[in-house]
Amino acid sequence: MAQMQMGAEGMQSLPALLQRNAVQFADAPAYREKEFGIWQCWTWAEAAKEIEALALGLVNLGVNEGDFVAIIGRNRPYLYWSMIAAQAVGAVPVPLYQDAAAEEMAYVLGHSGARFVIVGDQEQADKVIEVQDQLNQFEHMIYLDPRGMRKYDHTQLHQFSHIQDQGRAAYDELIGELAKRQAKLDYDSTCVMLYTSGTTGTPKGVVLSNRNVIQSAKNSAEFDHLTQGENILSYLPMAWVGDFIFSIGQALWCGFCVNCPESQDTMMTDLREIGPTYFFAPPRVFEGQLTNVLIRMEDSSALKRKMFHHFLAHAKKVGGEILDGRPVGLMDRLKYALGDVLVYGPLKDTLGYGRIRVGYTAGEAIGPEIFDFYRSLGINLKQLYGQTEATVFITVQPDGEVRADTVGVPAPEVEIKIGDNGEIYYRSPGTFVEYFNNPDSTASTKDAEGWVATGDAGFFEEGSGHLRIIDRAKDVGKMADGAMFAPKYVENKLKFYPDILEAVLFGNGRDRCVAFINIDLTAVGNWAERNNIAYASYQELAGHPQVLESIRSHVTAVNQSVAEDEMLSGCQVHRFVVLHKELDADDGEMTRTRKVRRRIVEEKFADIITALYDGSEQISTTTEVTYEDGRKGSISATLTIVDAEVKPGAIHKVAAE
Amino acid sequence: MLDNSLSYVTDDGRTIGGVVMEMKNITLRFGGVVAIQGISFDIREGEIRAIIGPNGAGKSSMLNVISGFYVPQEGEVLFHGKKRPPMRPYEVARQGIARTFQNIALFEGMSVLDNVMTGRLNHMKTGLFSQALWKGKAEKEETENREFVERIIDFLEIQHIRKTPVSRLPYGLKKRVELARALAAEPKLLLLDEPMAGMNVEEKEDMSRFILDVNDEFGTTIALIEHDMGVVMDLSDRVVVMDYGKKIGDGTPDEVRNNQAVIDAYLGVSHD
């Protein structure tokens, strides 16, 4: 299927798109970054010059076609330029998670055989230096922020700006070579290699071609009518496929502006200052913001609190309908308009969503209550379902057909089929080329006809044709009595409560379900402060009787709502424990994108699970923890096991027909 | 004038120059209490100089003598080779000496940014009237100073609390803001009074890194008082050890660590 787009002919690579933007949108802002308290800005013409200088510098340094260039750091324009420059010289950019520990980096650097590494600052440089002896192919490292780097041995180390200077100086000698290499790039050239975090096993390098990236960017941009005038805030890990598509793919395709926050901690302030028109966040961010709003409302004056709750209740009633353009009575509309002036508008401004046109959430299922909260405020938040191997898009929700419990219809040019076991398969222009150096995995994931297994179980809803995801195919199980066990469904309900950060449900093959719960330190800490409850540590707070009691009431409420679901009423939580530590990616309990690794949690805390099932009232346990710098320690604790109230199910339908 | 004949390069590549400040036979008394008794030592350009000792050894008094806040009854303080007359604090600040305090002394109601801006006071020359009008020169001056302050905010990684009132910050961050304010004055000599007191391990590590970075990037000479022996031994080039107002040791961390008097007085007597 040859797709010929207007003006898209010949633009089969990132550098080609950049060239078009540099001419067509020369004076429009392309990149902004807040530094020294001020938003610094580069137009497309300026960005193209910077990228060219860097590309020349890379040629000068000896980067060859087909080399891998690893890129590690927080979202900064310079690092986005590095990815485009790497492709311009015929190399393959490999972005890495910046918070990965040194050993994890060693694996990816070794597996990709990266000869060159571009890092953000000293912290990243130190990690690479630490593992550099294990890397056979590593040759040169380029760093962005010179702070603290002055005394390092510079035989293999180069400052980013120096590389650019050298590139500019060698312009006449090397521009011919660069042009030649760029001309060779086409739809089949590798665009980027992204390592999937993977809830199981070691990371795999997903190879995406220019066709994958540019077609996906084009289709999705057209789907949501994205224009050159959009502004996005780029704050999600650069190693994640979503950021690559939004901040590079779509940004280059549409020519819109990529804004980078000042630091990780200032993201919320920067979000408010930029006021993006197109925004993407994992459910966690929306949950966090909602928690924050609720906490701050608790602390505010009685009048404000009253207004907030009153208008929010109204928004809950009609907000979503108004957003979807469905008929709503005049009085309700007027009241909503008043609410917009008094509550919703100011609230959206505070959150940074004042100008938002399209917002997406994906990565994990979002709690319906959280989702509806944002939509009721008039924020066009939608869900999409995707994965790295699909270059993000599998299904998306069209405007006006947005619901919390489905993930929408197949994205443009995506075909979907459901396997016999309920597993979802797809085929699209975004379907990845291969797993790097891993033909076995490639073959087991993608069949000869190009169908890719997602590993998720789901079904198309009759009538609407929307896809509904049940859970990870391997996580969905059966309980001892044959009832369906879908942990995520219950966990998401639990996580809606501001004081519950994370929940893990167990019960596959058992007669009843039990759960682990992580409290949210911000929310519970704030509550403790207001109630004069003293605590010395996370552990102490997590074990406080009053905290346990309030979590117990949440679990009971969730049980009530689970009981109402015919299919899943067996998944009620019978007993639970509030864990003494937060589940953490550094300990391997979560992926870097913060998804729980069920199997590892199950193994690691096997003693607690046993205690949950054998009826004991307390369990003493010792857990190994890993600090950010890789050192290990351990925490011991005695945890109280709490019984929760179980509600009678609707009609307990056993799967026997 | 600096005597640079003694200058050398440290293992990690910093250049330590000649003597910046010299204490000669300092004795400080509060009525009948002798806080400091005949102490002499020097501070050299570009070094990190630590003063350690048990509680009540006279460390803070010593730092106050260096900063010119206390005037010793006996002995003299030579700054850049010249005897320093008794001075008012602002005169000391103009000489290029800045400090932080053991008990944080920030303006609690002001934002972090405003607090750090106060550190630029000595670099603002325009008068009250033109400041009030905020036109021409005053505006330009404020912009320049703000730029400088922003660099320090970036350096100490406190962007996220730029506009937060200091009273709302946790202790560890307040300490960092205080360091930022001292740095805003562009000091030649920076005095830190227990920069790590009351911090947890992670905060201490952060602060240590900032102190080393300040010394390294700006070439600032640093004199600090600290209780945490591990920190002192890692950070400093030379250490003065005080006990009951007297100097009982002076030298590199290794020398001090092996000095018997120091071991007995401060590190404890071993019982084997």
Could you explain the architecture of this structure?
The complex is a heterodimer of chains A (657) and B (272). In chain A, helix 1 (14-24) packs antiparallel against helix 2, helix 2 (44-61) packs across helix 6 and helix 8 crosses helix 9. The two termini of chain A are 45 Å apart. In chain A, helix 5 links the parallel strand 5 (116-119) and strand 6. Chain A folds into 3 domains: 2-209 and 244-259, Rossmann fold (3-Layer(aba) Sandwich), CATH 3.40.50.12780; 283-472, Rossmann fold (3-Layer(aba) Sandwich); 477-656, GMP Synthetase, Chain A, domain 3. The model of chain A is unreliable at 1-7 and 651-657 (pLDDT under 50). Chain A contains 21 helices and 28 strands. Chain A is of the alpha/beta class and 657 residues long. In chain A, strands 4-3-5-6-7 form a 5-stranded parallel β-sheet, sandwiched between helices. Chain A has a 5-stranded mixed β-sheet with strand order 12-13-14-15-16. In chain A, strands 24-25-26-28-27 form a 5-stranded mixed β-sheet, sandwiched between helices. Chain B has 272 residues and is an alpha/beta fold. Helix content of chain B is 36%, strand content 25%. Chain B has helices spanning 59-66, 89-94, 112-118, 128-133, 137-155, 171-184, 201-218, 229-235, 253-257, 260-267; strands spanning 8-9, 15-16, 19-30, 33-44, 48-52, 74-79, 82-83, 97-100, 189-193, 221-225, 238-243, 246-251. Chain B has a 6-stranded mixed β-sheet with strand order 8-9-10-5-11-12, with helices on both faces. In chain B, helix 3 (112-118) runs parallel beside helix 6. The longest helix of chain B has 19 residues, at 137-155. The radius of gyration of chain B is 19 Å and the shape is globular. The model of chain B has no long low-confidence stretch (mean pLDDT 86). The chains are: A alpha/beta (657), B alpha/beta (272). The A-B interface holds A 35-38, 147-148, 150-151, 262-263, 265-266, 269 and B 12-13, 146-147, 150-151, 153-155, 157, 159-160, 162, 213, 216-217.
